[in-house]
């Protein structure tokens, strides 16, 4: 398979965000595969950015660097929402990652926390902000740090917030199948940022209610990302899979 530059087509690795799973990429995967790309969408553990003994970036980094199926192959690494923070950390030190694509995603700098970004002026107004007990169902989990809990978005908030712009029936399924994010993740500092050395692209949903568009714009411009804006909520990978796919293909053709 050849790419736009005459070389081998890069492999696309898709990383889902919090309160989701790899199925959120289904529409994008189908389109990428029909265009001849090999695609992987590994599970994101949703345990944290810097947890001990392991973290989500460490899990993904090992998937990228210790996986025989990816050995020696150029990679386009794509992250949605919290997955953007994961790829920002996981791609550091992996020379095979040729581009980063952020979809309605966090793009943190070293030392920043997701909670801090959401509480800064560009990030204020998230529909998941406010009193956590009013937004999430909080459930302890075995083996976690003392006092840590899993966060599940209250189902009645999913249609108008997390899944805004999607049909009610689809939002209901998303509410029922959500995978929780450990609450401690929001206060963990991000590590060195891969976007400082790897070309980046960003899809920004102009109606995103989870990560305010002003914050998405700030982070994308800081990363010098190629920006595509789309009239969509936080789940543009589901509501506008064609647009998201084209951005990924553009990144692949430019760098792969």
Structural class: alpha/beta
Q: Can you count the beta strands?
A: 9
Query: Could you report the average pLDDT, rounded to the nearest whole number?
Result: 94
Task: Give the CATH superfamily.
Answer: Alpha/Beta hydrolase fold, catalytic domain
Helix content: 25-40%
Distance between the amino and carboxyl termini: 12 Å
CATH architecture: 3-Layer(aba) Sandwich
Major sheet details: 6 strands, parallel
State which percent range the strand residues make up: 15-25%
The level-1 CATH class: Alpha Beta
Question: Biggest sheet, strands in spatial order?
Answer: 2-1-3-4-8-9
Unreliable spans are 1-6
Task: List the domain count as a whole number.
Answer: 1
What is the H/E string? Answer: EHEHEHEHHEEHHEEHEHH
Q: What is the radius of gyration? A: 17 Å
What fold name goes in the CATH topology slot?
Rossmann fold
